[in-house]
Amino acid sequence: MYGVFTRKTLFALLVILIVVLILMGVAGNVMGVSAAPRELPIYSVETPEKVLSLGINCAWDDSDIDEILKLLDERGVKATFFVVGTWADHYPDAVRRIAAAGHEVGSHSNTHPDMTKLGREEIAQQLDASGSKLEALTGQRPVLFRAPSGAYNNLVVSTARSLGWEVIQWSNDSLDWKGLSVEEITARVTGAAGPGDIMLFHAGKPNTAEALRRVIDTLAAQGYRFAPVGELVYGPPYTIDHTGRQHK
């Protein structure tokens, strides 16, 4: 009797286990179907070449633009300047000089809002307004967008891409906006640099220009070359892994 009871109990437990596993599988499939995949910008690019990009945000003032343009010209480096629309309103000649020097111009929004707090139409308005302003000043419609403060969500990324923009983040942050010294910025950036990096600098900060000079010289001595973001990233089709690194 004891043996029969044990076999019945084991059989019942086995049946219960099978049912639970089936239910878990069904639930997992439902969750997999309903959960939206995370939309990521491009943080960096997978490449065998020692190439990286300088991404310079323009949101404060134009006090160091001429110094930055001069040093980039002296070293034969082309960068990507992500410009806020209101910055372009205040410093249209600076935008023209950036473009005339052969640098790439991208959007950093129109008014520098927290894009994650906007609806789709408001996101589109930010992109369209900034794009129109930059096109009027440079003669070219920008196609790269870097979100203010790096704040994005699925709606921001998917909306931008649906409108023909590529969304760019960064993998190497200078933190120049925090008031770091030239030496601190240089060490931070060069110490972390790797192939396919997209860097973050800010125009209008006291130590950015000199730090850029040292970063460029140090990395060039290590065999790196610099390309605008638009030349570094791949066109479709491509994949982006969970770290935001783009693969061909």
TrEMBL record:
<dbReference type="GO" id="GO:0016020">
    <property type="term" value="C:membrane"/>
</dbReference>
<feature type="domain" description="NodB homology">
    <location>
        <begin position="50"/>
        <end position="227"/>
    </location>
</feature>
<dbReference type="GO" id="GO:0016810">
    <property type="term" value="F:hydrolase activity, acting on carbon-nitrogen (but not peptide) bonds"/>
</dbReference>
<dbReference type="InterPro" id="IPR050248">
    <property type="entry name" value="Polysacc_deacetylase_ArnD"/>
</dbReference>
<dbReference type="Pfam" id="PF01522">
    <property type="entry name" value="Polysacc_deac_1"/>
</dbReference>
<dbReference type="InterPro" id="IPR002509">
    <property type="entry name" value="NODB_dom"/>
</dbReference>
<dbReference type="GO" id="GO:0005975">
    <property type="term" value="P:carbohydrate metabolic process"/>
</dbReference>
<dbReference type="InterPro" id="IPR011330">
    <property type="entry name" value="Glyco_hydro/deAcase_b/a-brl"/>
</dbReference>
<protein>
    <submittedName>
        <fullName>Deacetylase</fullName>
    </submittedName>
</protein>
